[in-house]
Amino acid sequence: MVNGMRLALQQADNKAGNFTIKYESLDDSTAQAGNWTPEATSQNARKACQNDKAAVYLGEFNSGATAVSLPILNECGMPQISPANTAVGLTTDEPGADKGEPDKYYPTGKRTYTRIVPIDTIQGAALATTMKEDGCTKVAMTNDKEVYGAGLSRNIQLAAEAQDLNVLFNEGIDPKAPNYRSLASRAAGDGADCFVYAGITANNAVQLYKDFAAAIDGLKMYGGDGVAESGFADPAEGGIPESVGANVKLTVATLSPDDYPPQGQEFFGDFEETYDEPNPDPYAIYGYEAMNLALDAIARSGDGSKEKVLEALFDTKDRESVLGTYSIDENGDTTLTDYGLYSVDGGELKFDKTIKAETGG
Amino acid sequence: MEAASIPAARPKPLQVVQDWLSKYGLILVLLIMPVYYGIQDLSDEGDLSRLGGNIVDGLSNGSIWALVAIGYTLVYGIIELINFAHGEVFMIGSFTAAGFFGTIGLTAGMGVPGLVLGLLLTLIVCMLVSGTLNVMIERVAYRPLRNAPVLAPLITAVGFSFILQNVGLLWRGGSQEGIGDLINSQNALFTVFGVEITNGDLLAIGTTIPLVILMVTFITRSRLGKAMRATAQDPEAARLMGINVDTTISLTFLLGGMLAGAAGLIYALYQTTIWYAQGFTAGLIAFTAAVMGGIGNIKGAVLGGLIIGIIQQIADNRIGTEWTPAIVFAYLVLIMVFKPSGLLGEQTREAG
Amino acid sequence: MTSAMGNRNVKIAIFLAGLFVVAILPLFFNESSGFIDDCTLALAYICMALGLNIIVGFAGLLDLGYVAFFAIGAYTMGWFASGFYADADIHLFVGEFASSIPGIHVNFLIVLVIAAALTTLAGIIIGLPTLRLRGDYIAIVTLAFGEIIHRIAINGDEVKIAEGFPLTNGRQGITPVDKIDLPFLEPFTSLNLRPWYWVALALALFVLFVNFRLRDSRLGRAWIALREDEVAAISMGIPAVKTKLLAYGTGAAFGGMSGAFLASYLNTVNADQFAFSFSIFVLAMVILGGLGSIWGGGRGRGRADVHQLPPHPRRAQRRAEQGRARIRPLRAVVRHLRLPARDHDGPQTRRPDTGAAPPDGARTGHRRGRHRARPGGAMTDSSPDLILDARDVSKVFGGLTAVGGVDFAIPRGGIVSLIGPNGAGKTTFFNMLTGLYKPTTGAILFDGAPITGGRPDKIMARGIARTFQNIRLFGTMSARENVMVGEHARMRAGLFGSVLRTPRVRREERHVSDKAAEELAYVGLAANTFDQLAINLAYGDQRRVEIARALASDPKLLLLDEPTAGMNPQESDELTALMHRLRDERGLTILLIEHDMKVVMGVSEYITVLDHGEKIAEGLPDEVRADNRVIEAYLGKGAMHE
Question: Where is there biased composition of kind Basic and acidic residues (chain C) (predicted)?
C-alpha cells in the first residue's frame, strides 16, 4: 500500500499543480503487537495536525485506528483519505453502524474524512450473494472481533439472512488459540456446508481455515479482503496449503487487472517495473489511488490550504482513476460498488469475476 | 491464617464433610463439564460421539501440555521456582523444528522411512536445543540468585521469558506462520465409536507416553535421578552426602527443557502453525496443568495436562473459543486458592 | 538538629524548583508536540508505577496482573464518558460536544472518583482470596486474574448487562471517549496537549504525595514489616490479610485513576491494550527504579534493587531441618520434592522444631503426658490469679506429635521458664500461645478469656508479645521504626488519616515515636543508634530492639524465645537484670525459653521441662535441677549411671 502511494507520488514528480509534495510515512504499529496501537496512531494524527504544511492525511489501513485518528484530525480540519477502511459507521448510520455513529467521530461537526473503498455493507452483500450462487445452505461464520472483522461479519450475516441462508453461528475467535478443531467439529456436527471468516490474516486465519477444511470434506470457504494477501494464500509464506486453498474464495474491492480502465492496467505495469513485484497486494492500487486523489485535490484547491483541499476533495466528481470512474459523496464515501471475487490457486490470488452485489441487504 | 485449617486428629462430623470436599471437591469440579455435556449429548443426539471427539482432541492437545507441564513440575520440585521462561523454551523448540525441517529438506512428499528418520533426527535436535537453552537460563538467570529473596528469580524468569519471546519475534516474525503439514496431521486414521482418530492424535499421544515413561524410569531408577530426588528433599543434606547440587539442578533443567523441546516438535507437527507468542499461552496452560495435578508430581503434571486439554476442547466446542482461556485461568485461580496441592499432591501445610 | 533542618529546607527548595521546571516545561514546546505527548503518557504510567510500588515495593506482593486495574479504570471512563451506551441519555456536567452525543457522559472528575472506587473494589475482590497465599502463588494468581479480565474485556461485547448495554466493546474498542472537561477551564482538545500534561502531572503528584505520606505512616510500616518478615509482622499485631488488602486496594485505585485518564487521553478503550505485557511494563518501571523506593517508581531512576524483598524463607527451614531428612518411600516420582517454604518460627513449617525428632510414628497416639499435675499444685490452688492457663494442649503435625497434652499455667507477675532439649516442642508451644499454630487439642485461657486458635494479631492485641529464637527484626527499618511497628495494634491511624496527616494522626505519630525511643532507652540501647537500620546493629543490640518492639505493645505477658542465645556472659547478665526490672517496674509476666542454665536458674521462679513434646518435670529451679528425668533428658540415659 505504501509502495502504491510512493509510486503515485513519483509519477507525479512530487508535484501537484504548483505545489511540491513531500510524503512522510508514519507507522502506527509496534513490532511486538504487529498491529496498530492507539498511542502511535494518535501521535501520528497530532503530528500531522501540528504540521502547517500538511495538506492531506492518508490513512489508516485499519478502521479501528481511524476511529482514533479521525476525531483528532477532524479537530484541526485535516482532510483524510483512507485507502482501505471499510467499517460502515465511520461515514454513515446505515445498518452495521452503531448508534451515535458517525457523528461521534466528528467533534467539529464538519466532515473531513473520505475513502475510496466501498463500505462493508457492499462487501457483506457481495459475499452473501456469492455463497447463495454457490449453493450454500448452512453457513458457519467466524470473525476476529476487531473493528473490521466484527463489522464485516455483521454485514455478511445481515445480507446472508436476507438471502435466506441459514447462519449456524457467528463466532468470535481467539487469535491466540493453538487450533480451532473443536469449533470446526461443532460446525461439522451442525451440518455446515459453507464457512466464512471476517478478519485479518494476522489473527490466526491460516490455522482457522486449515482446521475447518480438515473437519468437513468439501467445505466451501469464503473470506473478505482482510485475508486477501500472499501471507494467507501462499504456503511458501506461511499461508494455507494448496489443498485448502482450492476451496477458498475471497472478495476484494480490487478488480482483475483486465477489468480496470487503461490507467489501472498501466499501474500494474509500472508497479512491477518499479518494485519487481508482478502481483501486488490488492491494496497497492488503493494506496496508489489515494495518493493520486490527494494530489488531484491539492492541485484543484488553488492555494493548498487544508480548507480548500477539503472542499476540493468532497467536490470530487466522476473522477477517472485506476479504479474506474467514481465520485465522493457527501458522507465521504466512494460511489464505486464493485467487488472482485478471487480464488486461491497455487498460492496466488486469481481473479474470477466481478460481483455486482445486491445492496440494500 | 493458613494455620487455621490443619486437619485435626479426630475429625468431627462437619470436618468429615470438609475433608471429603477437600479431597474430592476438585475432582467433582473437574467432572462438571464433561458430565453435563455428556448428558446433554445423550438426550439431544443419543450418543456420545461428540463428547468423545472432544475428549480425543483434548487428550492429544493435552499430551503436549503434559510434556511442558513436567518441566514446570521438575523445576518447581527442586528449587521451588516457577520457571516462567519454560513456555518460551517450548516455543524455541517449535521454531527449531520448523527451521530444521527446512535445513534437512523434510517435506510431506518424502517416503515414510525417510520421514520417520528425519523426524527422529529433528526430535533429537529439538530436545538438545531446548534442553541446553533451559540449562543456560538456569546458569544465567537463576543460579546467581539462588540465595536471593524468593521473588527475585521469579522476576528474572519473567524477564527471560520476554527476551526469548523477542528472540522468537526476530527469528520468524510477528504473526502466526503455517508450516508444512508433514504427517498429514488431520487425516483420519480410523474411527472408533464414531470418534475419528487422526494422525496428529496418534503422534501426540504416541510420543508422549514413551517419553513420560522414560522420564519416570530415569528419575526413579538411575543414580542421577535419585540424586535429583535427594536434592529436592533437602539440598543441604544432599550436598553433605556428596551429591553435586549444582549439577543436579542443571540436570533437572536439562530434562525439563528436553521434554519442552519434544513438545515443541509435536506441537509444530500437530498444529502446523507456529508463532512467537505460542509459548506464553502454552506456558500458562501447562503451569495450570502442573498445579492441577499437584506441583512437584510428574504423574500429576501428565494428568493435569490431559485434563486441561479436554477442558479446552469442550469449552472450544460448546462455549466458544474466545472464552476458553478465561475458563482455563479460572480453574487456575480456583485451584491455587482452594486446593494448591492439586489432584495428586500431598496435603501440605501451606496447602491447608 | 539545625543542620538537619537546613538540609530538609534545601531538599524542599530543590524539589519545588524541580517541580516548577516540570510544570512550565510544556510552555517551551509546541502545544501538540510529540515530546509533551510522550511526557504525558510517561506521567500517566508513573502514576501506575507508583500505585504498583505500593503493592510490590511496600507490601512485597508480586502482582503480575496490574493491567486489570488499568482496564477497569479505562472501562469506567468508557462506560460513563462516551457514546458507548447510546441508548442511555445521561449528561452530567459535560461540555457542549459531549452533550450533543447520545450516551452516558459524566464529568471526568466524577469518573475519576468512580474509577478509583471500582478498582479498589476489584482489588478487594481479587485480593481477598489471593493475598493469603505465598509470594510466588500470589504472582501466578494475579497473573491469571489479569488474563481473565483481559479476556472479559475482549469478549465483553457478548456479555449484555441489559439489551443495548454490552459490558465492553471488545477488540473494536470504545471510541471516541469524552475529553476531560474541568470546571472553569476550556474543554480539552486533542490538539493542545498542555492541559493534558498538567492533569497528568497533578495526578502523578497526588499519587507521589500519597506514596510519601503512606511510607512514613502506621500503614506503611506495617506493609514493609509484612514484606520483610510476615511471621514477625503478624506476631507484632499486624492483621496480615487486611493490611495487604489495603495495599492492594490503594495500589489498584491509582491504576484505575491513571487508566481513566489514559482512556480519555488516548481516546479509546480497546481490549487489546490490556495484555499481560503491560503489567510487565509497569513492573519493570518499578523494579528498575528500585522496589519500595518512591523516587525509583516515580522516575525510573536509580539502581535495580531487589534485596529488600523478604529473604528466601526456605533456606532457614532447610538448615533447621538438617539432620532429620527423612527420605520417605517415594510413591509418586517426585511427590515430596516440595518442602514447605517457611521459616522455623513460622506457621507453615511442617515440623516446627529443630533437632533430634523422633522417627515417624514413634509418638503418634501417645498424646497425653504422664505428668498431669498442675504447675506446682499448691501454686494453682493458692494463687488463682493465673495470667495464662493452658490445658491439655497438643499439636500434631501429619501424624507427628510435637506437643502432647501439656498443661501449663503462669501466675500473674511471675517469671517462668520453659526448658527442654532441642526438639522438645518448646517453640511449637510458644507458637500455639501466640496464635501462629492452632492447637490440635486443648484450650488456652489468657487473662480469663479463651484465646485458643485465635489470630496472632488479635492475641497480640490482648496483651501477649513475643521475641523470636532467631532474631526477626525488619531489616530495612530503623530500630525506632521497628519498635513503632510493635505499637501497631495500639494505634488508630487509618489509610485516609495517614494520607491527610490530621492533627490527631500527627499527635499519635509523635507520641508513638517518642514512646519507641523510651522503650529503646529502657532496654539499654544507645540513643545514637535509634535511627540506624536494624540490620546494622550489633547482635546484642538487635536482641534489645526485639524486646523493645515486643514491649511497645504494652503487653501483659512477654514471651522470650532464647533471648540470650549468642550473647556473652555480660550481656546475659544485663538481660537477666532487665527481666527483673520489667517484672518489678512494669508488672509484666515473663515466659522464657532458654538453654543457658545459668540464666534459667538465675531468673526463673518456676520451671517447666518439656521433652519429646511432653511435660516431664516442673517445679522450683532447685527441684528441677535435681530431677532425674530432666538430667536424663538433657544428658541421655547413660548420664544417670555415671
Answer: 340-353
